Every structure is written in structure tokens, then in C-alpha cells.
Amino acid sequence: MYKRQGSGPTNGALAYTGADLTPGLIAAGVLVLLGGGLLTFRAVRNRRRTSHLRD
Description:
The protein has 55 residues and is mainly alpha-helical. Helices cover 60% and strands 0% of the residues. The protein is built from one helix and no strands. The longest helix has 33 residues.
């Protein structure tokens, strides 16, 4: 019979393939929240700047 050379143990964890969605979803959620916060901040700032022009 042919014996395979250099084969290691066949038990243990599999290599990371990137199939876990959690880190990507967390990063996307953080970016959405930061973008929403930035848009809100700019809207409030612009409203305050233009409010004195109407008086």
C-alpha cells in the first residue's frame, strides 16, 4: 500500500475562511450609525446657521 508522506493529524479546527458574518455585520452597523450621526450633526449645524438669517 502507498503511505502518504508528510500528512499531519486530521483533527482540530478548520482554517478560517471568512464565512462568519458577524464581524462584517458589526462593522457595517458601526459605519451606518456613524454616517447617520454625521448627517444629523450637519443638519443641526446648518439649521442653526441659517436660522439667524430669517429673523
